[in-house]
Amino acid sequence: MKKIFILITLLPIVFFSTFTVKADSAWEQSFTDDFESYTVGKAESQTALTDVWTNDGWNESNDNASDVFDIATIKEEGGNKYLNMDYDSSFFYMAPTTMRAKEFAVEFDFRSHDLTDSWVGVVMRKEFRDTRYNGGTGMMFYFRTKYLTDNEENIIGESLVILVLRGGSLSTTDLNDQLVGQTVIEYIYPTEGEIDPAQQILNNWYTAKIVVSDTENAKEALYEVYINDVFMSSLTYSRSSLDIYGYFSLNSCVGDFDVDNFSIQSNDTVAPPPKVYVNKLIDSSGTVGEEILLPGGEEGDLLLIGDDDDIVEIEIIDPEQNSITLASGVFSFTPDMEGIYTVRYVVRSTVAGEGYEEFYISIQADSTTTTTTTTTEIVTTETLTTTGQVDNPTQSDFPTGLVLIIVGGLALVSGAVFVIIKFKK
After folding, report:
1. What does the pLDDT look like over 102-155, one tens digit per residue?
2. Which structural domains are found in the chain, ordered by start?
3. Pairing of strands 72-77, 41-42
4. What is the pLDDT of residues 394-420, one digit of tens each?
5. Exposure letters 80-91 (e unless 16+ CB within 10 A, then b)
6. CA–CA dist 310, 195 (Å, integer)
7. Are strands 255-266 and 80-87 parallel, antiparallel or unpaired?
8. Which residue would you say has higher pLDDT here, 342 or 93?
9. Do residues 312 and 347 touch, judged by C-beta distance below 8 A?
């Protein structure tokens, strides 16, 4: 795991604070893997593979990772090596370690040995690499293989169905009804004669390809799906969380799939911008003259992606748009005026320019503590004794048998002695 050093510079003195992150600095414009360079056996036991592919279990970023071990295996058949994913649970994924893109083509070969409603697919434009399809933002196109049955549940054929859903941090959204074109490949068994193995979905290789490109509309993208180089369907969709240079992952669920010749080709004209993630909350409010503490000095505070030098600068912009860069090793500032302050964490890349994460802090004036004096006035029809000047009430002011209590504007009526309690503030 790579060590990242924060160098926040304003003064010529250099000070380093360390925290553990993974960062990538080169512009990776393509990714290919035909799995020939690995040995037959479990995927996670091979360093050569886990240097290229990863997930939250393999890289130990999640102490409680599940559904990622003892699933992916390198197999060989007729001198050809490929990846097999075989298990009866859900949520398996493996992600190319550093590849990010916004416009691209992703392609892979797959075959299914299980038609009991299993699927394999790719999540793209993921903000975070180490999230599953239902635990973070991203668009997933997946291919479900299942038997076709008649009304009496007799198997009459096989199908391959193109499906799509948008992932979110808290939920997923099916977008299948927005796909335009053909979404199903079927093979209906002949009523007479033998089943043709060459026509079956079961145990046959298919090539899936998804091409993603931005449209002329802001934040909108066109997703085009091909099977065996034949255009099948498309989706046009707009969402801010997907308008990013994102990660990818290969996913499968409840099945036995083989995958080979996985590739991603970026069609971007500029490199993905560097990113910095601030992993701790920053207070959104403060007071003039009181110190504001910022994340950055402890392990795990920040995550850098795609920068050149593992350096983060922290800029403070006051309400009058004056800007300063905090000195190295300083992770706090003291506001000296009311208004909205901007805290900006900045990272830079030679090939992709600047990236930053901004936070806004509302600063209020220093308030002086005041003491509230409460004066209680009690008026009864018996004594009419007050602590202040109160007009003598009449019988009509206090109906017999009722108590009117006024507390901070709230009137309560009850049966008892006639009492008014008024609070002066």
Report:
1. 999 999 999 999 998 889 999 999 988 887 766 678 999 999 999 999 999 999
2. 28-266 (2.60.120.560), 275-364 (2.60.40.10), 375-424 (no CATH)
3. antiparallel
4. 444 333 333 333 333 334 333 333 333
5. ebbbbbbbeebb
6. 60
7. antiparallel
8. 342
9. yes
CA-to-CA distance for 255 and 143, rounded, in angstroms? Answer: 12
Neighbours of 201 (CB within 10 A): 22
Rounded to an integer, what distance in angstroms lies between the CA atom of residue 248 and that of residue 268? 15
Do 118 and 254 form a contact (C-beta atoms < 8 A)?
A: yes
Whether residue 228 contacts residue 110, with contact meaning beta carbons closer than 8 Å, is answered with no
In degrees and rounded to multiples of 5, residue 72 shows phi and psi of -85, 130
Question: Could you report how far apart the first and last alpha carbons of the chain are, in Å?
Answer: 62
User: Quick one: residue 400, left, alpha or beta (phi over 0 = left, psi -120 to 50 = alpha)?
Assistant: beta
Residue 55 CA to residue 372 CA, distance in Å, equals: 59
Residues 6+ apart with CB under 8 A from 317: 323, 341, 342, 344
77 Cβ contact partners less than 8 Å away, ≥ 6 residues apart: none
Q: Which H/E stretch holds residue 47?
A: helix 47-50
Rg (the chain; Cα; Å): 32
Long-range contacts of 400-407 (CB under 8 A, 24+ apart): none
From CA 274, how far away is CA 349, in angstroms rounded?
6
Residue 301 and residue 279 in contact, taking contact as beta carbons nearer than 8 Å: yes
CA distance linking residue 129 with residue 109, whole number of Å: 22
Q: What residue has token string 């926040």?
A: 8
Record the tokens describing residue 155, joined without a space.
């198997």
Residues in the chain: 425
Beta bridge partners of 31: 264
> pTM for this structure?
0.71
What tens digit of pLDDT does each residue of 51-100 get?
Answer: 999 888 788 777 766 678 888 999 999 999 999 998 776 678 899 988 99
Cβ–Cβ under 8 Å, residues 53 and 223 = no
409: number of Cβ within 10 Å: 6
